[in-house]
Amino acid sequence: MNWISDWALPKISGLFKREVPENLWHKCPACEQMIFRRDLEAALHVCPHCGHHMRISALRRLECTLDEGFSRIELPKAPADPLRFRDQRRYSDRLKEAQAKSAMDDAVAVAHGTIGGRRAVVAAMEFAFMGGSMGAGVGEAIVTAAKLAVLQDAPLIVFTASGGARMQEGAISLMQMPRTVIATRLVKEAGLPFIVVLCDPTTGGVTASFAMLGDIHIAEPGAMIGFAGARVIEQTVREKLPEGFQRAEYLLEHGILDMVVKRGEMKATLARLIGLLREPLVLPPPAAEPETPPPAEEAAPAQG
Ligand SMILES: [Zn+2]
């Protein structure tokens, strides 16, 4: 028995122990630098050292996109666990747990308000809620957001983050693909812009439906966007995939995206886009060119 480790060290560390909140610092998963949590929060969860965009919650997304005073809307309840699905655990238990952890009913939050003073309806997906998977609840939320946009004559902006279909809802989750596609048609038929902001990661059924039907496709830097995972594709095509495959920058280069926008500039970019799409540019009538320059100006000598 060692008296130093068993007796002396606990006493000494007890003397110096202070109340330090454990989550004061956050380690960047990309560059592994430590970031003071308050700084990280202020930087909208973008690493100040390497610019890595970390995932943020749907509610935080609404806060940093919409102007103050926006209102979140209550979404219609979707049938919970229609198939009474169970794997290692009941789906209904998983749902309850996710709901308690995120304070959301399902993986989408919808709000309406203004962005830079211009009206907008924003839907944000929550990846932390069962991987942002799309079941009836998510489908319902997108349809509701689209209807609200039409009702309010406002553009629809959707921030996507999803692992794909919610397998616990089987075919019902697949039915959300055509449903959400129809929802985007509603917005387009009303002549309203539909802007998709693809966040890390956007995959599977969400990529294969409404996420690729925007009038404008924006992505956050480094976001993984694709249908199937890179490993599955590599095994299928038996070829080495190019560097940066399925990342936002690669997709921008190959014409899938219109823009890659940093989180800190997202709100201003959206406000500008809505302005351009909603308010036709009114150019001042061309000024008639004077045939002879007014002599008064020429004659005016520079004073001083
Ligand atoms: Zn970093």
- State the CATH class of the largest domain: Alpha Beta
Q: What is the helix fraction of residues, given as a range?
A: 25-40%
CATH superfamily of the largest domain: 2-enoyl-CoA Hydratase, Chain A, domain 1
Give the termini distance in whole angstroms.
93 Å
- What Rg do the Cα atoms give? 26 Å
Beta-strand percent range: 15-25%
Major sheet details:
7 strands, mixed
Bound molecules: zinc ion
Distinct helical segment count: 11
| CATH fold call of the largest domain | 2-enoyl-CoA Hydratase, Chain A, domain 1
What do the pLDDT scores average to? Answer: 90
Shape: globular
Number of domains: 2
Give the second-level CATH assignment, the architecture of the largest domain: Alpha-Beta Complex
Main β-sheet, spatial strand arrangement: 3-4-5-6-7-8-9
Write down the secondary-structure element order: HEEHHEHEEHEHEHEHHEHH
* Count of distinct strands: 9
The helix-and-strand class reads alpha/beta
What does this structure look like?
Helices cover 38% and strands 15% of the residues. By secondary structure, the chain is an alpha/beta fold. It has 2 domains: 23-54, no CATH class; 56-278, 2-enoyl-CoA Hydratase, Chain A, domain 1. β4 (108-115) and β5 form a beta hairpin. The radius of gyration is 26 Å and the shape is globular. The model has no long low-confidence stretch (mean pLDDT 90). The structure holds zinc ion. Zinc ion binds next to loops.
In short:
The protein is α/β, with parallel strands linked by helices and 304 residues long. The protein has helices spanning 3-16, 37-42, 58-65, 91-102, 136-152, 170-189, 204-207, 230-237, 248-253, 263-278, 295-299, and strands spanning 25-27, 34-36, 71-72, 108-115, 118-125, 156-162, 194-202, 216-219, 259-260. Strand 5 (118-125), helix 5 (136-152) and strand 6 (156-162) form a beta-alpha-beta unit.
